[in-house]
Amino acid sequence: MQEISEHVFIERSYPGVTLGAINWPHGLILIDAPFRAEDCRAWRSSLLNLGGGVDRLLVNLDAHVDRTLGVRAMECMVAGHERMAEVFRTRPVTFKTQGPETGAEWEMYNGLGSIRWAPPEITFNTTLQIHGTDSSLVLEYHPGPASGATWAVLPGHNLAFVGDAVVFSQPPFLAGADLPAWLTTLELLGSPTYQNYLLVNGRNGLVTQKHVHQMRDFLKETQAMLKELSDSRATAADTAALVPVLLKFFEFTADHTEQYTCRLKWGLAQCFTRNFRPSGEQIEE
What we know:
The protein has helices spanning 37-48, 65-68, 82-90, 179-189, 209-231, 243-247, 257-276; strands at residues 2-5, 8-11, 19-24, 27-31, 55-59, 77-81, 94-95, 115-116, 122-124, 127-131, 136-141, 150-154, 159-163, 198-201, 206-207. It contains seven helices and 15 strands. The protein is an alpha/beta fold. The strands form three sheets. Strands 1-2-3-4-5-6-9 form a seven-stranded mixed β-sheet. It has a six-stranded mixed β-sheet with strand order 10-11-12-13-14-15. It has a two-stranded antiparallel ribbon with strand order 7-8. Helix 4 packs antiparallel against helix 5 (209-231). The longest helix is centred in the last third of the chain and has 23 residues, at 209-231.
């Protein structure tokens, strides 16, 4: 566990997403959850060492399986955007490991078993302010990367957990993306307002403004290539040809090639349908 600001911690040792913990006198605010039961137990045990109060609130930054699969095992109240809650209403009550290969982290692990979802009990539309003793946390809706995409912002620390708005060393998940909205979100993140902010993304940990610009370049190229396919009356299956070109935007080790190829192939097909064929084939979250 790394303390990145006073009483604010991140944890990157578990597969899946970057976890966050904000230690207030009356309790902890948690950002996302590990997806394996044993990791949830280890994370909860680590949090006991922080001391503080007994209250717990877990914030999910979107509804992606990697960050929501282990939420029930964290045994605390959950907050998330109302669109995230809508996603849960369309999912089966119990998670099963069968399904399409999407390049998600959880798909790389066996023995996850049958798990019941824990949808958010506290929801919001635009913003939600959570007040501590001497600081506050603001949950903000920033559309683009996924349904209900949320930032958890600590204005007093100049710090923001921005979820999957920016990633590096791996391609983003495009299946639930709204590309124009995502680019608008990145323009805000690259504006003077956030130049002096410490930014934590949902996959790699700390990110810089350089990563923000690289993400914007990738999305602009992706949008242009998908539009070109759409103008030529191509189908979602034709987006697979774009994968080798778009993978070159990211540097990663060879052992991830198959996973990230799968992630982009699935994501591009779904993104094409969502953004350019809105009345076409079924879209899966």
